[in-house]
Design brief:
With about 300 residues, the protein is mainly alpha-helical. Helices cover about 70% and strands about 0% of the residues. Strands 1-2 form a two-stranded antiparallel ribbon. Strand 1 and strand 2 form a beta hairpin. The radius of gyration is 31 Å and the shape is elongated.
Length: about 300
């Protein structure tokens, strides 16, 4: 924002004015940041569970209507005994421990998989300082080819795990069109359309890169033997990291852990469909006579968490 003087000449805002405006913007972003996160729909919790949450709510309301409208007094008393029994038994399920263990396991695997993603930047820096011999563009072409092979191996490996990268490069023709691979190289690698763990040749470009580096040393493009050993170690580490990431993607959490957690969650919420019903009898030792709710608000929160 600019200010105008008495002569009509526009004056630039001062430094303090810019600081105040910046502080107001940051404060507004901090106040609105949580609401933006909570009410975001794309890739959100609400988009993931809204169908299950709707079906669960409808089932809860149907049980409540049957209890209040369709049962006789004697049957309603029996239903209240069942509600009380389910309410007492639902507290004995170790749901918090199981979910805490399972969530920590999944988050740790996700973070370790991300940390193992290799970066070709260090290889490019090594090549720039190491491959400097030869005449003309010979050294530059060696550097470009090795980095291209590293990127090609990265794409071929990660596209088997990443949906977004798979959509970006669905076939080998798309890779040829971008120039990351030649037609003859694509024929040697294959179509790469299998999801099996050991039927991919994503490692093959890294093998070509090591052959190029060995040839470059023989042609005296690399004049430092320790440097040659270092760049070969970088290529080996790059291949090892990609192998670890692929292993994380193909070997999931043990099935028994998933089955135990899934069974515990389903049993807990199935019992809660009856146990969390608000009763019409004030003799039941709960706070049902204080507030008769038809909507399972606490169950919504529990199912969302």
């Amino acid at each position: 924002m600019t200010n105008c003087t008495m002569t009509g000449v526009k004056k630039k805002p001062s430094t303090m004015t810019n600081l105040r405006e910046s502080y107001r913007t940051r404060a507004t972003d901090m106040l609105m940041g949580e609401s933006r996160v909570m009410f975001r729909w794309r890739s959100s919790l609400w988009k993931l569970i809204w169908k299950e949450l709707l079906a669960y709510t409808v089932t809860f309301l149907l049980i409540s209507m049957v209890y209040r409208l369709a049962l006789s007094d004697a049957m309603r008393e029996q239903m209240e005994d069942i509600i009380l029994w389910c309410r007492q038994k639902s507290t004995g399920l170790p749901l918090t421990f199981l979910l805490g263990f399972y969530v920590s396991l999944v988050v740790r695997r996700w973070w370790e998989q991300y940390c193992k993603l290799p970066w070709p930047d260090s290889i490019a820096i090594f090549l720039r300082g190491l491959v400097t011999g030869g005449q003309g563009d010979q050294a530059r072409m060696v550097r470009r080819t090795v980095v291209r092979y590293c990127l090609l191996s990265y794409i071929l490996c990660i596209r088997r795990l990443s949906v977004r990268l798979r959509k970006r490069f669905p076939t080998m023709r798309d890779l040829i069109r971008t120039g990351i691979i030649r037609s003859d190289e694509a024929l040697r690698i294959g179509e790469e359309d299998s999801d099996a763990m050991y039927e991919s040749n994503w490692w093959m470009p890294l093998k070509w890169a090591t052959e190029i580096m060995a040839k470059a040393q023989k042609q005296e493009l690399i004049k430092s033997p320790p440097g040659y050993a270092g760049i070969m170690g970088k290529l080996t580490h790059f291949r090892s990291c990609l192998g670890d990431v692929a292993t994380y993607g193909h070997i999931p959490v043990p099935l028994v852990y998933t089955q135990v957690v899934t069974l515990a969650v389903y049993v807990y919420f199935a019992v809660s469909l009856v146990g969390e019903q608000w009763t019409m009898n004030e003799k039941v030792p709960v706070l049902s006579h204080l507030h008769d709710s038809q909507v399972p608000l606490l169950l919504w929160l529990a199912q969302s968490c």
